[in-house]
Specification:
CATH topology of the largest domain: TIM Barrel
Number of helices: 14
Structural class: alpha/beta
Helix content: 25-40%
Largest sheet: 8 strands, parallel
Strand content: 15-25%
CATH architecture of the largest domain: Alpha-Beta Barrel
Radius of gyration: 23 Å
CATH superfamily of the largest domain: Glycosidases
Distance between the termini: 25 Å
Oligomer: single chain
CATH class of the largest domain: Alpha Beta
Number of domains: 3
Shape: elongated
Number of strands: 23
Length: 453
């Protein structure tokens, strides 16, 4: 892994962490492995299937794998029963350790889902409260326990469920025993599985003091341990800063991407990118590496939400060309479909084997360009040319300049602009490009022009 020294401000130089130069692959393991939807208590080593997919991941050019929940849960993974043990439907801790070793041996870092806002009703501490009620030493582990009330499950006491979902029991993240338990679990994940970071589920709900303590603690385990937060709205700076999270999910640009293509109005995504990363001093997220994505386990797959499937390569081109760290959801790289309206399990299927097609090959070229480019990893953002159906934007760092060009129209387009030099090389094809007399963008076209000095 190459680490660039980048000038941040006032001449200060700083090494950037591994995450900033990554291309991430996301898998929902319970669905991916074909596990039963309900926890049947039967231990089956399904998780080793991940090893069979390592050649596919490497061919795609990914160097980090984000796994949705892998720990023992009641059903879908986010209602955790045991933070210390891999879900029996996936295998044993030893099975998962073997998988992680093989991933790391192949240069793929591991990011796990950290589900700390809530647990499942099968969590040992909650079961103790069900049995012993106010006499349970764990009564303080949960938010708003009221033994004069009741729950929708008729427990004989009230507790807070996450956003009204009472199978997701909200943890009290200001309770020292809860914090110590979760930190001990994280330590065990680092020691046993050598993980490199966590994606924090519903980070926008987490106690901010807990997040600060989590950042301090995980830095003692690994100096570059990643904390990536799930944030849906609002100002990401609330949690993404030097004392809390390293990054957050860029849902603003997720929506802007597919909406721009479906409305044939690239002004929308350009507006978001200018607002977040533009050259003006007031833009929100300069030098921050938010997670870029076109779909994930919670939303309709990109092949199902785009009105024109021919735009699939183009939307990925903008995802990989814009500021941020791109993430690809398993199956979407070959155009698999899935609609949120059909339920979460429709988004989290089991594929017998990976598929390789032209879209996969194109994403592989995007990944190679991104991982090898200082400008695409660290460069600023500037809009160079913009129409409803065409956009060209610049990514410029200290030592490199790349122009990302996209034409989503069925007709060719000739772009006239000042490129600042005469020639470039398309990082996706290796072909030279001459800016003299205007740059022709063929129909349904994307290019990463690396400027020649």
């Amino acid at each position: 892994m190459v680490y660039y020294v980048v000038t941040i401000k006032n001449g200060e130089e700083k090494y950037k962490m591994w995450y900033n130069e990554s291309v991430i692959y996301q898998i929902y393991p319970l669905g991916f492995c074909g596990a039963p939807h309900e926890n049947d208590g039967v231990t089956v080593d399904r998780i080793k299937k991940l090893i069979d997919w390592i050649p596919h991941m490497k061919r795609l050019g990914v160097n980090a794998l984000y796994l949705c929940p892998v720990f023992e849960s009641d059903t879908h993974g986010y209602n955790t029963r045991d933070y210390m043990r891999i879900d029996c439907r996936l295998g044993t801790n030893e099975d998962f350790a073997n998988v992680c070793r093989e991933l790391k041996r192949n240069g793929i870092r591991v990011i796990l889902d950290g589900v700390f806002n809530h647990c499942g009703r099968g969590f040992f501490a909650f079961r103790d409260v069900q049995e012993r009620r106010w006499q349970s030493p764990y009564a303080g582990w949960f938010n708003r326990i009221d033994f004069n009330g009741n729950s929708p499950y008729n427990d004989g006491f009230y507790y807070e469920g996450w956003e009204g979902n009472y199978d997701l029991v909200k943890l009290n993240l200001r309770n020292e025993e809860v914090i110590n338990y979760l930190f001990a679990a994280i330590r065990s994940w680092v020691e046993n599985f050598d993980i490199d970071g966590l994606r924090l589920d519903v980070a926008y709900c987490l106690d901010e003091t807990f997040i600060r303590r989590l950042r301090s603690y995980t830095e003692t385990l690994k100096p570059e341990f990643l904390l990536l937060g799930e944030m849906l709205h609002g100002d990401y700076n609330r949690l993404v800063n030097d004392g809390m999270l390293h990054s957050a999910t860029n849902y603003e640009c997720y929506k802007g991407l597919y909406s721009s293509f479906n409305s044939k109005n690239l002004f929308e995504i350009n507006h978001s990118l200018m607002r977040q990363f533009g050259p003006e001093y007031w833009t929100l997220y300069k030098n921050k590496h938010l997670l870029s994505f076109v779909d994930n386990h919670d939303v309709t797959r990109v092949a199902s939400i785009l009105s024109d499937r021919r735009h699939l390569p183009l939307i990925y081109a903008i995802e990989f060309g814009m500021p941020g760290v791109p993430c690809v959801y398993y199956g979407s790289e070959w155009g698999a479909e899935g609609k949120k309206s059909d339920g979460d399990y429709a988004l989290r299927p089991c594929f017998d084997a990976p598929v390789w097609n032209d879209l996969c090959g194109f994403i592989g070229r995007l990944a190679a360009a991104k991982r090898g480019s200082e400008a695409l990893n660290y460069g600023g953002f500037r809009s160079v040319l913009l129409t409803n159906k065409q956009c060209i934007f610049e990514r410029k760092s200290e030592h490199e300049r790349v122009l990302v060009a996209v034409n989503l129209d069925d007709a060719p387009f000739v772009a006239h602009f000042d490129a600042g030099c005469g020639t470039a090389v398309d990082m996706l094809t290796g072909e030279p490009h001459d800016f003299g007399g205007g740059s022709e963008l063929p129909p349904l076209y994307a290019a990463f022009w690396k400027m020649e000095k």
